[in-house]
Every structure is written in C-alpha cells, then in structure tokens.
Amino acid sequence: MAANMRGLTQFIADIRGARVRELEEKRINKEMANIRKKFKDGNLDGYQKKKYVAKIIFTYILGYKVDVGHMEAVNLISSSKYSEKQIGYLAVTLLMHENSDFLRLVVNSIRKDLDENNEVSNCLALHAIANVGSSEMAEALSEDVHRLLISPTSQTFVKKKAALTLLRLYRKHPTVIPAAEWALRLVSIMDDQDLGVVICVTSLIMALAQDHLDAYAVCYTKAVDRLHRLVIEGEYSATYAYYKVPSPWLQVKLLRLLQYYPPSEDATLRSVLHEVLQTIMNNSAEPSRNVQHNNAQHAVLFEAISLAIHLDTSSPLVGTSAILLARFISSKETNVRYLGLDTMAHLAARADSLEPLKKHQGTIILSLRDKDISVRRRALDLLYSMCDTDNSELIVGELLRYLKVADYALREEMVLKIAILTEKYANSYKWYVDTILQLISAAGDHVGDEVWYRVVQIVTNTEDLQEYAAKVVFEHLKSPSTHESLVKVGGYILGEYGHLIANDTGYSPLEQFQVLHSKSQFCVASTRSLLLSTYIKWVNVFPEIKPQLINIFERYRHVLDAELQQRACEFYSLASRPDDDEVLQNVCEEMPPFPPRVSALIGRLNRKLGDTEDKRTWIHGGKEMNLERHGNSRKATLGPGSSATGTATVTDTADAQDVMSSLAGLNLSSSGDQLDLSRVDVVAPRVAVGPSVEKWFNKLTCSAEGLLYEDVQIQIGIKSKYQGHLGQLAIYLGNKISVPLTSFTSTIHVNDSEALSATFAKIPPNTLVPRTQSQQLLHVECKKVFSSFPILTVSFLAGAHQSISIRLPISVTKFIEGVKLGQADFFERWKVIGGPPREAQAVFPIPLDGTGQLDLVRYRQVVSGNHLEILEDVDPNPSNLVAAGVLHTSVDGKVGCLLRLEPNREAKLCRLTVRSTSEDVAMEVLRLIEKLLRSDCS
Amino acid sequence: MISAFFIFNQKGEVLISRLYRTDFKRSIADVFRIQVVSNSDVRSPIITLGSTSFFHVRVNNLYIVCVTKTNANAALVFEFCYRFISIAKSYFGKVDEESVKNNFVLIYELIDEISDYGYPQNSEIDTLKSYITTESVISSAIAAEESSKITTQATGATSWRRGDVKYKKNEAFVDVVETVNLSMSAKGTVLRADVDGHIQMRAYLSGTPECKFGLNDKLVIDKNSQGGASDAVELDDCRFHQCVRLNEFDTSRTISFIPPDGEFELMRYRSTSNVKLPLRVIPTVNEIGTTQVSYNIAVKANFGTKLSATNVVLRIPTPLNTTGVDCKVANGKAKYVPAENVVVWKIPRIQGGQECTFNATAGLTSTTTRQVWARPPIDVDFEVLMLTASGLIVRFLKVFEKSNYHSIKWVRYLTKASGSYQIRF
Description:
Chain A has 938 residues and is α+β, with helices and mostly antiparallel strands. In chain A, 56% of the residues lie in helices and 12% in strands.
C-alpha cells in the first residue's frame, strides 16, 4: 500500500518541508482544491478514493478544518479491500463527530462488517464503534457487539475487542446496555480458555458490577475460582506470565472486583480466598532483584492486601500485611512508599485497632517530609486516618509544624484535616482553641470560612471556654501581621466576651479596641462590617471608650460601601441615644448558644474527593466513617436501576447546599426518599416450571432422594441426609450429550439468609465431561423458621448459554425429627399448646384413590416424609392420623410440633390441625403438608 | 527606555540579542517566544506582561522586538524599530533571516551605535555610513582624520551635514510617494479612504545650501485651526526631518531647511479628505444555488487620459470549497490560484478613462457542514505615475547658497496601492 500511494508520500514530504506556516497553508489549500475537483468530477476508483481520503485525514490531523470527503470515507468502508476499508474506518473515526449525521450512514456498513465471518473486518468495525462511541451507535450496535462477544465462533481476538468495546459503550451510555440481563452470559465468559479474553471481560464486568452488584453476584465465585486456578494451581499458559508472575493484570482486576462485594458468607469461598491471599503474600515476601518482577509482584500484593483488609480486618492475613506494609513505607523506591502509605491508610480506615500502625508513627511522620509531593499527600491521609484520642495531640502538633513549610497545593486539605481532627479528638477545649487559632495564624489563606465559623460556635456553646478564648485571641491579635480570618474570630469573640477579661491588666477595653482597630484598615469590607458590630457591642459594655467608638461610626457613615455605611449609620444613631436607654442593651444581648450541629467540615472534605473510573471501596477517616458510608452506598446500590442516579442525587444536593445550610448540620447523604428506594428486594431468579418439574419436586419433598430435573441435555438428581439442624445434599449433575458443558456454574439463591444457609462444600468444577455425572455437596443449616425454598441455578454453555433455576426441596419439615409419644403425653401437650394463635387449622378437599376410598397409605407417606413420627393408637378413629416431631434450628433452638389429620370420605374433605409452641412453625408445617395432600400425585 | 532588543525568526529562534540594561536576563526572549511567537491569537504589536512590555514589528517573517520595563513612549519605540529596518535595508538590501545571519556583526555594531543605554541616538543613515562601513579597514591616518570630522559634525550647528561637500553638478530630486488605503462597502459607499504620503529628497548640493519648499497654494496644514475650503488640500499629522526649521514653519508656514547630504525623507503626512480614488471597481457577485458563484467585475481608471495605471493586480476571493473557476477577460490575464483561494487578475496597463471587465463562474463542491461564505474583500494593487491622490503639488523649491550656484531640481509623483485598497461585495 505504502509503495504505490506516491501522491500521499509527496504531499506529506512537501508539508514537512515547508519552512513557514504560510507555505504549508498554501500547499494544503492547493491540495484541497485538487481533491474537491476530483471528488466533484466523480468516477474515482477505490485506490484514488483511498489516496485522497488519506490526504484529507493527514490535513485534518494537522489541525486544518476539513469539510469534504466524508461521503467518500463512508463509501470506502463498504469496500472489500482491507486497505481501503481501513482508511475508510480511520476517516470515520477521526473526521466524524459523535453527533455527526453521517454516522447514520455508517451504522449499516458497520453492522455488515460485524456480521461478516472475517476477523479483520470485525476488528475494524469494533474499533470504529469504540472510538466514536455515539449514543446512536450504542443503541443500534450494542446487541451486535454483545453477540460477537458471546458467539462461540468468534476468534479470541475479536472477543477481546468486543469486550472492550462494550466497556467503552457502557462507560459512555450506561443506560443503553442491559447490564443486568446480560449478567449471567457475560460472567460465563470469565471461564474462557484464553486469559486475554478473561482480562478484557473482567474489565467489563468490573465496570458493570459496580453499578449492578446483585445482578453480577455470580462473578464472585468465578473470580475466586479463577484466582485459585491462577495462583495456586498455576493454570496459565507461559505467554501470560510476566516476569514469572502469572498474568498480574488479571490478578489485580480480580482482586479489585472482589472488593466491590461485601465479604462472602460462604465458608468454602472464604477458605479458598484465604489460601489465595496467603499464597500471594508468601510469594512476595522476598523482593527480587529484577525491577519488573518486583513491580508485577507488588501490584498484585497491594491489591491482595487491600482485599484482605476488605474481607476481615482482624484476620492473621492483615497482621502479615501490616508487617509487609511497614517494610514498604520505609522503602527506597518512591512508588513503593506511595503505595505502602496508601494501603496503610486503607488499613487504618478499616481496622479495629490502630496499634500495629502506631508502631510506625515516627516513620509516617517522617514521610510528611518526603521529597515527592504525592507521597507527602498519602502520608497526610494516613495520619488523618490513624488519628485517635491517644495520639491526636502528637499528630496534630506534627501536622501544624509541617503546615508552615508545606506545599501550597497541600495546605488547604491539611487545614481542613487538622480542623476536623482537632474537633473530633480534642481532650480539652483549651487545646482545641489553641490549635485552631494557631492554625489560622499559620495558614490563614487556606482556612475556609467553615473553620472559623466552627470555632465561634464552639466557643459560644461552651461557657468555661469563653474567657480563655478571649485572652488567647487577644494575644494572637497582638502579633504584627495577622490573617483576616483571625481578625474575624477576634472581632466576634472579643465583642461577645471581651468584657470577661476587661478587668485583667493588659486587657483593658482601650487596649482591646486599639489592637482590633489597628487591623481594620487591612481588611475587606465584610470584615470591617463585622468589626463595626463588635464596636456596637462594646458601646454597650465599655462605656469608657464610647467616644472613640462613636467617632469611628461617624467616619464610616461616609464610606462608599453600602453595607458599611448602613451599619455605621444605624449603629451611630443607636450609640448616640441617651445612656439610660434600654434599646442598646436589648440589641446587644449576649448571643444565645447555637443549637447543636454536626460539623460541616467533613462534608467539605469528602466533597473534594474526585471520582475516578473505578470507585474506591473505602474513604479516609476512621472506622466509623467507613461503616456509615458503607451503609449508605449499600442502600444506593440496592435501588432500582443503576446506582449512578443514587450517587448523583447525593452529590447534587451536597453541592447545592450552601455554607449556611451545611452549618445547620444537615447531612444530606441519606435522605428519606433514598431509604424508600432501597426497600426493593432483590429479584429472585425465575424458576423453571412444567408439570413434570412439579411432580419431581413434590416427590422429593417427602423423600430423601430422587430426580429433580431432566431435559435433553442435563439431569439433576438429589440425595439428602438431615441430622438435627444440619443437612447435607448431594446434587448429581449429569451431562447427557456428547459435548462437554463448559463454564458450568451452579449457585444457590436463598431468600432469607438469616433463617437458612446453604453452601457448596467446594467450588464446583466449571466443565462437565460428556456423558458423565458429577456430584456436588451442599451443606444446609436451618437457623430459624423459613418459608421459601432455596433456588438452585445452573448455567452452562452448550452451544448457547443456558440457565436453569429449580427449587430445591428443602423445607422446614426436613429439619424435624419425629418423637414417639404415648396417648396421654400427646393429649397433655396438645392441650398445653392450646388453640389459636399457636394452632393452625385448615379444612380442604382431598382426592380419593381409584376405589373411592381414602388413600391412607399416601397420607402416611406424606406425613412421615415430612419427618413427623406417626403415633399409632392415639386417636380412636383409625383413619385419623396423629403425628409429632421436634424442629431443630440453630438459632431459635428446638420447637415441638403436633399434627392431627382427620380425613372424611363422604365429604371428600379433610381437616388438618397443627399445634406447635411457635405459631410460625405451626403455620408453615400446615401449609407444606396441606399442599402435598391436596395435589393429586397418583 | 528600551532595555533589550531582539530579532527572532519565524520559529521564535533568537537571531540577535542585545541587552542595553541589566533589568532583564537573556531568558526574557523565551517569554516572548512563548507568549507571542507560538501564540497565534496574539495580533497586537504591544504585549504587556506584568511590568514588562514587548513591542514588535514583523518584517519578512522576522520579529524585530524591543522590550522595556518602563513606561516608554510607544511611538518612539516603534519609530526606533522601523528606523532600524530602514538602516538595515540601506546597509544590506533585504532584511530577512538569511541577511540577518550573514550580517550579524554589523547589526550588533549598528544597534550599539543607534542606541546608548536604551536611549535612541543619531540614526541618520548617511552619518552612520561615514563611520560604520562594510568595506575593508581604512588606514589609521585617514581613519583618525575622518573621526575628527565626525566629532566636529556631531557637535556642530548642523549635526546632519558636513561643511565641506562639493559637487560639480548641483542637483536635487524630490519624490512625492503616496499610498492610498481604501475600504469600500458592498453598496459602494466609502468606509475609509486615506493617503499616507512621504516626500523623499535626494540632495546633491555643494556647501551649506538653504532650501525653501513650497506646496499647493490652498494648503491646509493643520485642519483644526482653520476651516479650509472644500477644494483645498488638507494634510494631517505632518512630520518633518530634523533639518526643517520648525519655528519658522509654525510662524510663517514655510518649510525651510539645510538638507543633509544624500537621500533623506523630508516629510511625512496623511490626508483623509478629498482623496481622489484612481481606480473604481464595480463588482457583481452572485451565488447561484449551492454549486456556483458568478462574477462580473468592472474596473474603471478614474484619471486623465494621458496618465496610466501600471502593474494592476486584482485578487478576487473564491469560496473555500471551489473546485475550479472559468474566467473570461478582455484585458490582462486571470488565473485561479487554489493555494490562496483567490482568482488573480493581472492587467499590465490601464489608460486613463479606460474600463476593463472580468466575467467568471466558480464551481463549488458540496460540503459536510454548510457554512456561509464570508465574502472577503477584493484586493487591488496598482501604481500611477505623476498623480497624487491627495492633490498635493510641489510649487517650488528654491536653493540659496553663498556661492549662488545654479542648481537643477526634479520633481516626481507616484500614487500606489498595495494590500489595503479593498472593495467588499
């Protein structure tokens, strides 16, 4: 191609050779005129079109405006030659704005290329979609891209690109992609043979899962499994090992993905994960000589430590990581120090005990003086997070000392953090006032208004503090250069409480006045007006300096600033009233205490944190802050639709609130309507139905083993065993076809995880070999009474992606153990329990058997299938059934249960009565047995 | 005053760097390069950053830059720049990157001579040439003699002229050169028409001659003081060479002077009223649909039939999406130049009173974004000999000398337009 596009080469050479801009412009004008002429004349062959479009592209990327050639570019896309198609796509992605009308013309050509069974065309089309990323394209083509990604015939290369294209589309237009709908299918690709595809898909899932945590919950198991295979079993091809670390990128992504989810309850997953993290930490214990190897190892290690912290802060793993981190923060390499401090801040933000970190306090404080500013920042964050009542004075003192030499870029943040820490961990109010005043005088320019508002609030609300504060402020004001914020604080505090210290030597009214007034000429109008208010307060309490003050009001009556003038006039007339007038006294009453308010400072600090692509899973600050935040975010993500709306409202309202309303302590991060949004329950997977499914299920509810589901591809059988509140289910999964079922995933969905837990004994294998059966053990534990059946979802790839959800026949009655009781015992208990509400009764029609008789055998089967012991000779009527049992639960303990069944042949009705010490149990047992008896399962 | 003097090339590389004072470092040149040369938005010749002002003049892709920290007289600084350009021109012809590089030693010598500690000094070309030469070194004896003459000349009553000038043939040439600037609206009303004129004199006269110069009878030199008749020639902003006796001019309006030897610019003026436009251009341009533009342009010579305009060049703009232009002309040649998006119509000569026409059709191509054509103005360049657009005429030039010799005087007029004779359509 390059060889025969002589014109293009010449054109580029000419432009490169142009000495001045004018010459270049002339050359381009000439060429463009030529191209216009050629295009107008038409009759161009593909090669010529390609050449001219290439020239146009070159002109465009030099920064010139181009307004021809778009149509030709569109035509080139549908060319059959690769080189022409490529130039066409290049032109489309470069020249066309995402809202360009021409893109409509391209959509069809792109779709054709996506449909084509040609890797190269597919890739070009995917590139174009990702680069342009317009909403129109996203709407029209995201389905096709998705199809390419999931199609078994796609090449790995195409799959990779398709995944990344979807990621790009999702980031730009999150609403276009039905993320929740595609969840299972996308997650199944995480089992792909090719690690490259897995990396790309994991990136996509990371983005999607952040907004659809529950829809993508399946990926948790997959990620753990993948990590296990990668790290422990070493299942990866040699090309994916980077300096002996198996695919560090994938590891990091998986570890990060796991952090988006709350720690799993599943003991198996936990132990596997623990093993993985342990291995990663062991592998990295020895730093290697090779820089790249080190980098890769550290990348994985830091993410692993983060995950360990996320999972459980008290686990021994975290102990190990704390030791590792301590080593890192004193490392020679800046990057390692940075990451060490960052991760340590994560630890400090989540850990219960800060003791392990406090050992390194000295090192961390030294890091504040690191030569790299980003390291300094991280050190600051860490100190902020690890501060508590014990070390607050030390840390704040250190920060204050450092503030004076700190970088300007860092100061504002430091000031805020110091202010928050001082307030939060102040042991004494004196210390608080001292520190804040020191802060204002040291870094006045960087002190936001919120900081001094807060001082005033606290001083006003704390009576013991007022005299002390007035003295300290006065001392600070005496220094020759004071910042305006300090003047404001001084003006307010001396005005309110100056009279408290007026009798001490050195603090006389006149001295107070002179010190304060000497500052006023350097201040802006708003500060001066505050000072005027101070003076009128003084007119009230210090009659001895009244003449001077009136003199000042007099002068200010003529200034140009409207606010100042008005105040001066009003105060002047107020002050010149006769001495015995009460108006002045009433006006200048002491300020009442402020209503208690939440500090606005933290809100201010959090607002400053920018949001990047991948959300942080923690914030700086103590453990409480993280817990609170976690609660909020959980609510937000549970809401319908994407969480983006949830967080948007939070930030919007936070931005909208002005300083005053934030002072009032309105914490808007959890408003009422948001709580309502969060009430929506997670939608359970849709259960497979069919008459035979129902039949198999019913049969299994009263027997220990049998078939649960069967179709042409798969057969699922169950064997179960119960002992007390524990149960064990062996699930047999049989592959009936002659190809392996890949990406095999089985998950258990329990509606009420408080009452029932169900976990697999180990992570199930992800392929099912043809014509074999595999067994998976499921442990169940009954904690409380529950009413819904757990749902088993099995998904696999057999050509297409299939997903089957079936109810598992695990009911409350399975945890009942029969008890033998004599007639007397039975009736005694029956009476003790008494009638409603602890009795549940129902009368319902029952089917008769073929001969028109009561099917007593079946009734017995049903009752004993539900693990109740049938008591003979208790009821005089032989057709009546009486049974008893005890339900074992791990939380609520044992619950007794008595049952009486009275069928009536003539009326074809039967009466079922269940009495239990717990009304829930009675209801539930009644419901279960009634259902079985009603159904005609002959 | 001027603290530093630089010459930059197109790319912002420093060719000449001279610091007259210590208040700048050489790195101040980088500031100019970043703020002006590489910033295409800057069009103003004066940029003030903080307390530093940059004055620049562009000539042939060079930037002549003066930097100052004080509140200097901007007109003086620009005059200094232009003076430098004219000096450089007379020393080595063309001022461009090549010649600056070739003559950098000479340039340093010159800029040291014409400015001392940032204050402009004698910049008379003839005087400079007497002691800054490009020739080989003269022997020391003559050099000593020459230098003593310089001292007497510089300290004498007429610092611009030596006393001992001798010519066999005493001659004086006067050139009145006027540049016409015009901008005419599409409706044919004159938005702006003015004349920049200067009178260039070459005096080859012996001794110390006293010259007297007379212009039109009805000449209004300072418009504000007198009403002025409607047909009078009004001159604004007259500026004279330093040899002209200004007090005499102020009292009796006569221009009397002792000329320097050789070529100099006697006066410079501007005229904004009663400007005679030598060429009338009547354009009719129609956009036919979105695919064609038709042109019909007539040019009429608006002066006596004995005179003629030469080197007439019309630059007729075409839309940016022109594919080709089909031109028909009776006089001269017309050609579409795609590089500049104009049709260039060259007419070698137009006799007074004659009219030429131009007919053309430009074909357009369709574009992605439909933009209205800005219709830039038609630009006309021409020269007319023996005509002054302002109507200024030299009535007499008298030369008085002690020896009372006979002298020959020549007067020439030229009116021209280059680049700013524009007609909108």
